[in-house]
Amino acid sequence: RCWWTFVPSTIMEDEKVPLVIDMHGGGLTADAQMATSGYLELAESQKFILVYPKGRNNLWSTCGSDEMSCDQFSSKIGDVWDDIGFLTQLISNVVQVTDADQPWSNLIDPERVYTTGFSMGCMMAQRYALERSKVLAGFACHGGELNYIGEESTQTLDDYKNSYDLQPMPAFLTIGTDDKSYLPLAEQDFINWSYWNTCPDADAKSEITTTLTLIGSGKEDTESVDVNRTSSGPCTIDDLSIDTVIMKLMGVGHAPDSRVAGPSYEFLKSRTRPGALDELPSPVETISLIISSSAASAKVFSAIVGILNAGVVVCSTLLLAA
After folding, report:
1. In degrees, to the nearest 5, what angle opens at C-alpha 90 toward C-alphas 77 and 318?
2. Fewer CB atoms inside 10 A, N or C side of the chain?
3. CB atoms within 10 A of CB 256
4. pLDDT of 204-260, one tens digit each?
């Protein structure tokens, strides 16, 4: 299993910065996510390190460790694998690296690790938030759902919370109003995360309609879209400010959208998970290849980094025991 890491040139040697894990959609690729999500451009100005993991056969095992959910997943996909374990080991290796040859060595704040993604990557971002909330400080994702958890009784939701020892989890969901398949599922996710976060019920939520301007991704910064943003919270839980947000892009269908990166990261960047480092396993051996912006062997990545005129992209492979 492998991933790409992007280290912006704007990060200084003595800084501790967040880590964002950005996951591609089903059937898509890590390089496609890098090119379309909008986080690459944002990393330079906001100073955070990015990881783009590669799904197995370009898919994510979004059932996590839940046996009943994985039976459903296996009946559709034909196999189940441990992406919760893969992502946890990835985080451990990236956060705890001390090898001076790795450009991100000693730069990452282990209490500010966030997941994001599109479509199936969004599903995986939410599943990881559910099952590894003691590691993750928050998530924000676009065009997906929390697989196999829909409109449930409060008892079932409580069972999930207790099973995974779910901690309060800042959640930022984005979805297009013309994304007919996923819109109702994302709306249900908003209800479920609001419940898990013990935030106010629907009668207490706030709605704000505004206009969002497109940033980055090589386009003119003039394209805009009307947005409806609904928040549940903020709530203060264990001295942490927790809120749940769903942001709907009017007239937008099911596609990656770089416009959501800015408000998503703005929501995440102040969130912390105290004690996260203690929840991580020991690092394991990896093989890494450092790619400069002129590397011919990574044309897609080098072209994107070339636009930024800075930064380093690294490909790492996790060596798993047979």
Report:
1. 80
2. C
3. 22
4. 567 677 777 655 454 443 478 888 888 887 777 777 778 899 999 999 999 999 999
- DSSP H helices in the chain: 30-36, 39-46, 67-77, 83-96, 120-131, 154-163, 183-196, 261-268, 299-308
pTM here?
0.88
Q: Given phi > 0 = left and psi -120 to 50 = alpha, else beta, which region is 77?
A: alpha
- What pLDDT shows up at residue 210? 76
Q: How many residues does the chain have?
A: 322
Amino acid at 125: A
The token pair at 56 is: 């197995």
Distance, CA of 42 to CA of 260 (rounded, Å): 11
Using DSSP, state whether 132 is helix, strand or coil.
coil
Does the pLDDT of residue 88 top 70, yes or no?
Answer: yes
